């Protein structure tokens, strides 16, 4: 039997808290799960620094990747025998679902910003490079790795396949909303996925939703909205993210200044020089990063050391609402007061805006964006969701930006009361009223 | 106001998937949670290697410790105003609950066995040594750290206080059963904790259960039984545990043989020499251990390297039921066949028995064991649970041992078919029939 | 001890699937629950005819009334010791919560419409009349029954008390959304009530919500929206409701036409004549109504008999979207075609609009309506919810009416194919295309 | 297409709180659900009088019957293509599952005892008699009704089919445990049905369980045990049951004594005379019974009237543990004291033993009992469950009888204190100590 058609003797199941069981029957899927690059996802948290806000959010990307695979498996089970559905695409869809996040590194968001990396590019490299995953996919067919990469890259010719993995209501989002809600313990994130799966229909170039299922989709969109504001953009997690970014910045700066590290940052060298090989990338997971942070806590450089202690022991920055219309003058004053007080403002006075984050709870039809959700009306017409639903319309495409200013409250408080900067800093930060 | 009575301005809450919210009002508790030694528990998994079997089981001991605190908080809330309950003990109970697992290290079970450590001893050392936790406790009262240590150590004079933290139905067990069930996703582990809390009554020297709540307690005992066999003793997790132990053994052996590591095992040195300081102990968390395992995968020693690759990429040993009555002769033969085939049996042929593990789903009255569960009958008499409950009686004190033999199936399969040992090894392992 | 302060020896608990336990400690509450008029609520379904659509929705108003009581109990527990909260009002709030639905009759909505009754009036009559409930309340204080009635009637002087029982986010709504979701099994209806209870604050004349809880409130509003469209306005339940109303109409008409019933409709006489005494009202519960429907199925009058068979055996009317702009001409034609075909259009061609139903998922500030939701901002200002929340704004006050036309498809299909009316009826009803 | 193979155009789903959705594709099933005799099950509560203890337990046998059907549907879906499974039996299994409880009457247990009826006999009569259900089944095949009746009657030749519907681990039990737990809200009743369904295997003459699923089955058995003692045998529900039985007894006695009822008990006549026709039986549902009880509350006979008031308004009997070894003398004395005090002991002093109830949480191999559970061992051997499982063994076949004495505490308390019987009655009932 061809490798692509090989089935396990006995179906394997993974106990999954969200979908109850993840079922694997295909030999290819089983082999991919066992590949080193896929197992590596166990060492990368799904929600980055959110576990410092929601202590339950310690789950990994391995967890989520299995979930996305399982949802696609169920969708395709429902598609069997339907018009427009080409069952030859089944294995391709399953592989793309399983592997779509393969290129994520530790604390992806910060790493990508600081080191100018793109996890999607690394997903492609892992799939196409000299890896266990690639060898498995090649056994299916020489051209198969490229197909999988194309689906994940949204350049594959069959748009229906892409829309399963990447659209406004794809398996990725359906899994992470439910999973992140489950592990954080928040009451948002519930929607009737079973119903959504039942009303999904394959068309020529996309998956659509029977209009009778509109309310279930509204519920899903609302879940997303709530999860963004309640979980993903939580200011405490962002505070940890700010510190994390500043650690990476500082380490890079020190390296570029020829600072001598007591522990040579072997794993980071190519990140600092901007020349990261696939092998380097794969070696860096969150246990490695946390090891370095713990080592760097003992470095001579006071900034690097302080920031690492903060991250490791969760001594985070405090935050206040930041008025983006603050007079340039006042901002300059604050900045120089921090300098004078010995708190390098580059590292200790940080504005962070949530709109930098992937704010996409629903944006129909923007250039280059994920496919919008189309409803299939009883008369077989298609209508874009936000045209039919008041609720979705109300939150579509609105850019809600939230600016916060992060700083080390403990340092400010520790300034001697007779130091003239202290009072002024407190005034400018609006801390005086609070007392 | 005395530090011990200080309350936060506004109650703090942690969103908890198991108890919905963990509530903190006491300044002392809040400070303890923020202490570096407590935050360290975030980097130690509650269930050790179980995440390699149940992918959801990635939760930390931080998670669990908060949960135990919350349960004790609720119990004490119910105790308020009851006879026998001395509210002066409240803060002591809460601190002991929060800190009872503070001394756990990475993958505790294996580390304790290989390096002959005792996590309870380290809990004491952290509480009594020069640590953030100790300083906070001292602020309550000079003698307070010792009291907390005594409660955890079960030597405190007030046995009622001890029984909240450590008995057959303490807050520790009630939290971990529910929490481990939640994160693994298994359907066991549910019992009506709210009812149990309602029927708990303080007596002079122990917490007892009103007899009307017996069935809820039976359910709890059954949960425990099922969790042991379905989760805690799962043979796949034990396979990972076997490999982990063998890595530690090998590293120690190499060190003692003056092997030159390419990466000097700084963090491990005092573990190898058996002279672990508190500081050394606290520095070793699971991210550090995983860092070393990844480094050691590149070591020249083939055994250390192989075992580390196995652990990191989850290439585990397979297992078969091991017949402990196997003829010594056959066992010797198997052992020497492994040697001949180049698989050092010391590392590649391992018998593991579940009875080595803390098998205690219910043992009333054994020497030195946790207090049994007493029911408070309507006539105010006390009866030990297993005398009243058929079900509990049926599983009490039975030692059910399960022996398994672990070995690298991939190595056996990779032996050349014409190698004479292969067939015989397969016969002795009972693999031939399976083909 | 005064009756109003009497406590039960031991707290009583009711196992409740939604709130886990309902706790009763006050003697007055216990006595009220045992009163005949309260027990009668067991024989009246919470969701009227919805059980014919959602088979799980068989729960009674007894169920819900206990739930509302429990929520208010928990709110007041949180209010203890807060400014603005007068604990003297506690028992009044609990009684009003428990009794707020006491005047509901069987299938209230239809009965009220057909017989021009008002359940709120009967709630007052039961509380103030010669009933067990009244006698219990009188024991608290002669004027107490009137106070309870005033709170339910929203005329009580203390507006804070009223807002607990009756506002846009009162205990009534919070219970029914969760309860109806639980029993129907739909995935809507979940919101974080525990959080909402935590952020409720008593002010002088209303309960407000701390602004940090806005998202939890949004979730609650969305639940309500979804429950209305998915459950409460479900067209199949409305079909049953249409038939029910028509049965009552028919029986009343027959009575007025001096028709001789084989079973004298003793229980209904005063309803037919519009002179319903409190005693008559209390005697009519859903088992009585179902008894009559079953008896009337054997009546000589074909319409009454047919409708009763339909209701009893769930042979409901089918429905189509009704275009309210249908040409009067066409409507007249359809009407007379039904007449010709022997299907009295008065009973067999029914337009039903959901806007007739209590459509109130959020209407701030309308005359005579429930109090809107106010957020308490950090600066202590109050802001009306829909001014702060895009989502709530998007669905506020919109009147979304949904018109459906109900008719007996089986009768239409049973018309002989050569009957000229048949084809034309099918065309006008838009049935022909469907074939 | 043959009627038996007809499929609905679009699958119909029922929203079900326990199984999420009940799926119907077969025309035959759809028609059976719509049959009057099946709809009648909506008017019969699944748990009889338990709703007077657990207010959530208001669900009907309609509810449960759909659930059993759904479970069998899922089992057969898993069986597809397996050896031993004859797919020709599929429709038969589904029909038998759906209809297995069709003959239940109102408050079956009491009715059966008082009037010496057997609901299983009526199930057969409905299936084989002149009913809508029978006509539907006949359309499948003339002999089909008999086959369905045989399966339910356990006389069908294919024992595998029977074991799906009726064994120690059949779809009936799996549904009611979960459903009754859901509606009462108790925390028992959970087990991993999905896993059990996955390990069920068809053999020649029974369904067996792969031994790897033993723990899931243990959990199911334990659920059953807990549900019996916590829910099904709850003494308060039994108190209501006692009153119900006594009402029926009294009405029958009065009828036999030629008492003149103000409301002629038309529906009951044939029950009194012991000659119940199928038509009579089908007309009697719980709304009819409750109607009579409400009417009889106004009857002249003080006993009938009192008991009916008690049942309607939930003024139940109190209970004490009854010592079955009570000296005959004392019992005679109590009996005659009740008589003297004007409380007819026939109706007001009732011993009820739980062992009268269907106590079967696990009895392997008893004559005429349901099939025991067999485990399929890896070597293909079969082993009876209680031989493999300590827990199951511990509760198997044990007859645990619980005797209670029910009486009207309010009457006893209302006896004048100077009446000499009072003190003695209180002593004999053990009430004096309690004061």
Automatic annotation (TrEMBL), chains A, B, C, D:
SMART domains: HDc. InterPro entries: dGTPase-like, HD/PDEase_dom, HD_assoc_2, HD_domain. One of its GO terms (biological process) is dGTP catabolic process. GO terms for molecular function: dGTPase activity. It comes from the Bacteria. It holds the Pfam family HD_assoc_2. PANTHER family: DEOXYNUCLEOSIDE TRIPHOSPHATE TRIPHOSPHOHYDROLASE, DEOXYNUCLEOSIDE TRIPHOSPHATE TRIPHOSPHOHYDROLASE SAMHD1. This is HD domain-containing protein. It comes from Paraliobacillus quinghaiensis. The lineage of its organism: Bacteria, Bacillati, Bacillota, Bacilli, Bacillales.
